[in-house]
Design brief:
By secondary structure, this protein is mainly α. It contains 17 helices and no strands.
C-alpha cells in the first residue's frame, strides 16, 4: 500500500518530478492559473488606462488583487493546513473561476471590477497556501527547491507568453474577449487539479479558523529569524514590482516588451539558481541576487533607449531568483504541521507588497515622471537589501550552528 508519510529523499530532476502524478497536476494547474492571471491583469490594466488615463489606477488594476492577499493571511490561512487540502483547493478554484468569468461581463463598472480584484486576491492567497502545503508533501524534501524552481520558471515563461499574447490579442479583440480566454484557462486548471491531486491523510486533525490563524502568525512573527527572512522576501520584490507597474505609463506602445523581458529574466534566474546551483551556492548568492533585482532599474534615471531599458529589465528579472534560497531557509525553520500556513503567509505578504509597490509607484507617478519614480523605487529596494543584510546573515549563522550542534 502507498504510504502517506512525507518522503525525505528521492529524485530531484525536473523530468523525475513531472513523473510524479500529483506534482504534475499541481504544476499544470498552477501554470494555467498564472496564464489566466497574466491575460486578465494585462487586459484590465489596458482597459483602465484607456478609460481613465490614470497611472495610479492602471498600476492598481494590474496588481490590485495582491492587496487582498494579506486579508487571507490574517484571517483564514490556517485552512491551508486542514485535513482535506484537496477539497479546499478545488473549492477555491471553483469560486475563482466565477470571479474571473465575471470580469468578462461587458459594461461592468470599474468599481465592480476592483471589487472582484479584492475577492480574487483573497482566494488566491488561500489557494497558494494550500497548494504549497501540498507541494511540500507530494515531493521529497530534497526536491522542494527544484520543484519551486520549476514552478517559478514556468510562471516566468507563462508570463512572457501571456503578456506577448495579450498585447497581440488586444490589437484585434476587446478586453472582454481576453477575459473570456482567462476564464477558460482557469476552468482548465480546476479540472486538472480535481483529476490528479488526492487527499492527504498525514495531517493531524485541526479546526482552521481565525483563532488558529492568529495563533500561528503570532508565533511566526515573534521570532527574529523568520521576520528577517520575510522582510527580504517581501519588501525589495514589492518595490521592484512597483517599477514594473509603471511600464504602461512609461512606454505605452512597448509595455508588453518590457513586461516580457522581466518575465524572461525571471525564468533564466530561477532555472540557473534552482537547477544548477547547490544549496550552499544558493545561500552564498542570495545577497547578490537581491541587489541584482533592483540595481539595473537605476539606469532609468538616464532615460535609456528602449533596447537598453529592455536589457536592464531582463537582467533585473533574474534577481527574483533570490526568493528560492530565502524560501528554502524559511521552510527549514518551519514546523511540519503549519508548513502550508507559513508558506501561505510568505506568499501573501510578498503579493501584498507587490500591490503596495504598485500603489506607491502609481501615486508617485501622479507627480513625478515615470522614469524618476522607477529610479526612486529601485534605490529604495537596494537600500532595504543592504541595511537588512546583517540580520539575514545572523539568521543563517544561528541556523548553521544549530544544525552542527
Amino acid at each position: 500500500m502507498p504510504s502517506d508519510t512525507p518522503k525525505t529523499s528521492g529524485p530531484t530532476t525536473y523530468r523525475a518530478l513531472l513523473r510524479n502524478r500529483e506534482f504534475a497536476g499541481l504544476y499544470a494547474s498552477f501554470t494555467l492559473t498564472v496564464a489566466a492571471g497574466t491575460l486578465s491583469g494585462f487586459a484590465l490594466g489596458t482597459l483602465v488606462d484607456h478609460q481613465t488615463g490614470s497611472p495610479f489606477l492602471t498600476a492598481v488594476s494590474m496588481y490590485g488583487a495582491t492587496f487582498a492577499t494579506v486579508l487571507g493571511a490574517m484571517t483564514l490561512m490556517s485552512v491551508a493546513d486542514g485535513s482535506r487540502p484537496r477539497r479546499t483547493l478545488v473549492a477555491l478554484q471553483c469560486v475563482s473561476l466565477l470571479g474571473v468569468a465575471a470580469q468578462a461581463v461587458p459594461g461592468l463598472p470599474l468599481s465592480a471590477r476592483f471589487g472582484l480584484l479584492l475577492v480574487l486576491g483573497f482566494l488566491q492567497s488561500l489557494g497558494t497556501g494550500t497548494r504549497m502545503g501540498l507541494l511540500a508533501e507530494v515531493v521529497p524534501a530534497a526536491a522542494y527547491v527544484p520543484a519551486r524552481s520549476l514552478m517559478n520558471i514556468t510562471s516566468g515563461g507563462t508570463a512572457v507568453l501571456g503578456y506577448a499574447l495579450g498585447a497581440v490579442l488586444l490589437r484585434y479583440v476587446t478586453p472582454q474577449d481576453v477575459f473570456a480566454a482567462a476564464t477558460a484557462l482557469t476552468g482548465a486548471g480546476l479540472i486538472v487539479v480535481a483529476a490528479t491531486v488526492r487527499e492527504r491523510s498525514i495531517r493531524p486533525p485541526r479546526r482552521p479558523g481565525l483563532r488558529q490563524t492568529w495563533t500561528t502568525n503570532t508565533a511566526l512573527l515573534s521570532r527574529s529569524g523568520p521576520r528577517a527572512l520575510l522582510l527580504n522576501l517581501w519588501v525589495p520584490n514589492g518595490l521592484v514590482v512597483g517599477c514594473e507597474a509603471l511600464f504602461i505609463s512609461y512606454a505605452p506602445d512597448h509595455a508588453g516588451v518590457l513586461l516580457a523581458a522581466g518575465s524572461a529574466g525571471m525564468l533564466l534566474g530561477d532555472l540557473t539558481v534552482g537547477r544548477l546551483l547547490t544549496a550552499d551556492l544558493r545561500r552564498r548568492c542570495a545577497f547578490a541576487l537581491r541587489l541584482l533585482l533592483a540595481a539595473p532599474y537605476l539606469l532609468f534615471a538616464f532615460h535609456p533607449p528602449l533596447p537598453v531599458a529592455t536589457a536592464a529589465v531582463f537582467v533585473a528579472g533574474a534577481g527574483f531568483a533570490a526568493t528560492l534560497p530565502l524560501q528554502e531557509h524559511l521552510l527549514a525553520l518551519t514546523p511540519d504541521p503549519v508548513r502550508g500556513q507559513v508558506q501561505g503567509v510568505e506568499s501573501a505578504g510578498r503579493m501584498t507588497w507587490q500591490g503596495i509597490g504598485a500603489a506607491l509607484a502609481g501615486g508617485a507617478a501622479q507627480y513625478l515622471a515615470p522614469a524618476t519614480t522607477i529610479t526612486v523605487l529601485s534605490a529604495a529596494s537596494v537600500a532595504v537589501t543592504v541595511l537588512s543584510r546583517p540580520f539575514v546573515a545572523r539568521v543563517r549563522a544561528v541556523h548553521v550552528e544549530g544544525a552542527g550542534t
